[in-house]
Amino acid sequence: MTDPIKRAVELTDSGRFADALIAIERVALPQAQRISADVLTVRLLERTGRHDASRALAVRLLRGKSLTAGQRSSCELALGQIDWENNDTDAAIAHLQRAMALSIDANDPQQTSWTQLWLWLFLAEESGTDAASSTLASLRANVAAHPDPQLLAAIHIFIAINEGKRGFLRSAERHNRIAREMMLQGPNK
Question: pTM for the whole thing?
Answer without folding.
Answer: 0.88
